């Protein structure tokens, strides 16, 4: 073994140790039963509740180079997928520790880089057989819905005392006997392990049923499956129920369909809507137990599907969705409202009340509404100098002139509503309120585009560019109301709803009585939304609950124990140098330890194991059974169907309801794996170059070693 490699292994790898320590702080974020953390701001002493890797790394003091690389990696994953960050963070820690163990056994860096990268590539290829096409998922979920309804009407049983646990808002139901008869599967009969998913299509989905009808008032004949307004209701209560020990009297206004009326709340997906049933149930499978987000996603999917009139493939347009957090109301009042819901001051609310039902002329500003704002790329002329004719030491004269000019422009074009992408000057806001002009700042670009398309308004950068063709017509504004028609007066800020005829914009109104929980609810909603969006974009999903990681672990063990098996990657089996080939087994075992730790912690976080030791024993038990079966993928699919690999933590109802099955995104999951390993190997190689110096760097870049360099 070259001395440079021994020097690397003999010294401490600070970067890898830092990665492992930082990643260990987020291990409680895995699985549906998460442990939340409170982040306290040292300056303001305000606390925020978090449950995501993104918010965690934003709150940590990441001054080291390894910490900054970790932050950039997680932010890149969040920017592209909005999901998979917790998996990425955990695997970074697990594989960092595994690499350190390899170094302690004098494994050279090129061997670690080559074998680990090729091993992960082999895993990504191996798990492709577990991908479930979206069309088949929705088809099976809708058929399960029919079976569940038939079973409910046959038995007349809907849960404990006719009621569900309020936390199990959306639970799947199925006729166990009917499902077993319809799906004859012998998972151990496929010795060839051809991974043809069509043979096991119903296996991972047999536990799925449908979302049962929600509470409806007597006489309500709407076909809504889930209401987007009013207090949260359980989905397994009979239709005739009008009183509940969990809720007060349930009036019709809480649950009736209110799409298109002045209150602006959407009902849930129609039971007979084209594709809505499948999208709604798919949203549940991808929500990982987040009930509030599921209710909102089902309303969004139903609304967008209805607008598309079932033409073309089912998609969720993320650009047409915004969020608004309303503090002071229970979480049960969260709903989806057409149009743009935002928070306004009491003075702005007075202007909105003055508008009543009047049509408004709207102006869109693509920038800041301040005197000193200049667009990106603006260059001041080098040969022009501005001189004030009458300087005023008291200040404010030039600003008053600009303010009066901007006010005159708005008044001359009879503008009632101004939507500004950036910030708004305080003086401009006060002058506009006095003139009964509503100005809303910090509006997203997608919202401006939606209003432009609906009203015909054209965005301007400066008010001086305003002309008659830039002003749109047909907008309206009102104060947002709850599901029972009550206006919300929370003191400092009030929710207002702004819209226009034919605007496709939807706002997910997230309510909570805890200010520290607002960011958490918003993050959970966007995560669930993007999971559904990417699932439809990919056209396929993975079975969740650790099924994919278990197959990876089984595959790596097969590569370690039987290096000559067909299907093993040539780069892993045939290393060019004999002195490097002997380390293949050690490195693959280190890669497998990462998967094993992931599954063990996932089992502990789902409360299915009391300790990591017990969880590890359960994982070993499944690995042995998978190996004895002869077809690991067939065994895993069958166990996933039964909920026996890793269960979700949503307890079933006796005899009728099975536990919630979950699905994962394909591209987001595999990309999180790759990003995690890339980061670990990058830090490993950087540490090695720092430790060995110029001499070691020459050896690492030698022709033999260069074949194994991954990054």
From TrEMBL:
Q: Which Pfam families match?
A: Cpn60_TCP1
InterPro entries linked:
BBS12, Cpn60/GroEL/TCP-1, GroEL-like_apical_dom_sf, GROEL-like_equatorial_sf
Classify the source by domain of life: Eukaryota
Protein name per the record: BBS12 protein
Question: Which GO MF term does the entry hold, naming one?
Answer: ATP binding
Q: Which GO terms describe its biological process?
A: chaperone-mediated protein complex assembly; photoreceptor cell maintenance
């Amino acid at each position: 073994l070259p001395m440079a490699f021994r020097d690397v292994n003999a010294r401490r790898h600070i970067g890898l140790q830092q990665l492992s320590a930082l990643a260990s702080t987020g291990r409680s974020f895995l699985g549906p039963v998460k442990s939340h953390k409170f982040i306290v701001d040292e300056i303001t002493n305000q606390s925020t509740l978090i449950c995501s890797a993104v918010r965690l790394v934003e709150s940590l003091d990441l001054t080291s180079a390894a910490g900054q690389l970790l932050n950039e990696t997680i932010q890149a994953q969040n920017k592209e997928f909005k999901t998979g960050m917790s998996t990425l963070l955990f695997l970074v820690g697990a594989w960092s520790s595994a690499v350190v163990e390899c170094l302690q056994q004098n494994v050279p860096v090129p061997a670690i880089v080559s074998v680990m990268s090729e091993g992960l590539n082999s895993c990504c290829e191996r798990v492709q057989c577990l991908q479930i096409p979206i069309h088949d998922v929705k088809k099976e979920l809708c058929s399960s819905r029919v079976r569940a309804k038939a079973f409910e009407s046959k038995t007349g049983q809907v849960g404990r005392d006719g009621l569900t646990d309020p936390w199990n808002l959306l639970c799947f139901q199925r006729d166990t006997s009917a499902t077993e008869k319809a799906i004859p599967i012998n998972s151990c009969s496929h010795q060839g392990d051809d991974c043809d998913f069509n043979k096991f299509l119903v296996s991972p989905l047999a536990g799925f049923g449908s979302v049962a009808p929600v509470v409806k008032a007597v006489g309500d004949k709407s076909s809504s499956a889930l209401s987007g307004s009013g207090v949260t209701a359980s989905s397994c209560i009979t239709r005739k129920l009008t009183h509940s020990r969990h809720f007060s009297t349930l009036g019709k206004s809480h649950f009736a369909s209110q799409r298109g009326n002045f209150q602006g709340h959407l009902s849930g997906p129609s039971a007979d809507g084209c594709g809505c049933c499948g999208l709604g149930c798919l949203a549940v499978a991808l929500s990982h137990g987040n009930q509030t987000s599921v209710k909102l996603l089902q309303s969004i999917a139903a609304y967008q599907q209805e607008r598309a009139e079932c033409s073309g493939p089912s998609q969720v347009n993320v650009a047409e969705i915004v969020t608004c957090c309303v503090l002071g109301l229970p979480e049960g009042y969260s709903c989806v409202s057409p149009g743009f819901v935002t928070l306004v001051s009491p003075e702005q609310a007075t202007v909105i009340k003055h508008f009543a039902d009047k049509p408004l002329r709207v102006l869109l500003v693509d920038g800041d509404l301040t005197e000193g704002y200049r667009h990106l790329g603006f260059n001041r002329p080098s040969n022009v100098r501005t001189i004030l004719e009458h300087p005023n030491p008291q200040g404010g004269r030039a600003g008053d002139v600009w303010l009066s000019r901007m006010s005159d422009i708005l008044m001359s074009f009879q503008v009632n509503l101004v939507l500004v992408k950036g910030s708004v000057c305080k003086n401009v806001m006060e002058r506009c309120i006095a003139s009964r002009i509503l100005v809303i700042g910090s509006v997203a670009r997608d919202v401006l585009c939606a209003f432009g398309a609906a009203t015909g308004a054209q965005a301007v950068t400066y008010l001086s560019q305003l002309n008659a063709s830039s002003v749109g017509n047909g907008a309206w504004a009102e104060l947002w109301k709850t599901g029972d028609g009550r206006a919300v007066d929370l003191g400092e800020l009030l929710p207002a709803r702004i819209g226009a005829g034919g605007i496709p914009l939807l706002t997910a109104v997230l309510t909570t009585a805890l200010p520290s929980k607002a960011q958490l609810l918003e993050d959970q909603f966007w995560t669930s939304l993007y999971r559904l969006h990417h699932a439809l974009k990919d056209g396929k999903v993975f079975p969740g609950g650790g099924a994919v990681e278990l197959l990876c672990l089984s595959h790596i063990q097969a590569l370690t124990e039987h290096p000559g098996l067909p299907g093993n990657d040539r780069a892993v089996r045939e290393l060019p140098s004999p002195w490097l080939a002997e380390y293949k087994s050690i490195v693959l075992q280190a890669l497998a330890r990462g998967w094993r730790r992931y599954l063990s912690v996932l089992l502990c976080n789902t409360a299915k194991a009391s300790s990591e030791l017990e969880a590890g024993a359960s994982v070993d038990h499944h690995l042995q059974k998978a190996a004895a079966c002869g077809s690991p993928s067939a065994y895993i699919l069958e166990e996933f169907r039964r909920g026996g690999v890793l269960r979700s933590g949503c307890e079933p109802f006796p005899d009728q309801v099975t536990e919630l099955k979950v699905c994962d995104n394909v591209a987001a999951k595999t990309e999180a794996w790759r990003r995690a390993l890339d980061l670990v190997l990058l830090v490993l190689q950087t540490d090695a170059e720092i430790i060995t110096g110029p001499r070691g760097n020459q050896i690492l870049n030698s022709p033999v070693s260069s074949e194994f360099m991954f990054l």
